[in-house]
Amino acid sequence: RPSSTLPITLDLGTNNSSNLSDPLYLGLRQRLPSDAEYDAFMDEFITEMGCVYPKVLVQFEDSSTDHAFSYLERFRNSLPLFNDDIQGTGAVVLAGLLSVARLVPIPRNEHRILLFGAGSASVGVAKQLMSFFTIAGMNEEAARNFARKHYTGLPMKDLAEIVKYVKPTALLGLSTITGAFTPEVIRQMSQNTPRPIIFPLSDPVHLSERTFAEALKHSNGTAIFASGSPFGSEFIGGVRREPGQGNNMYIFPGAILCRAKSVTDSMVQASALGLAGSLSWDERALELVYLRIERIREISDDNKQ
Question: Which residues form the signal peptide (predicted)?
Answer without folding.
Answer: none
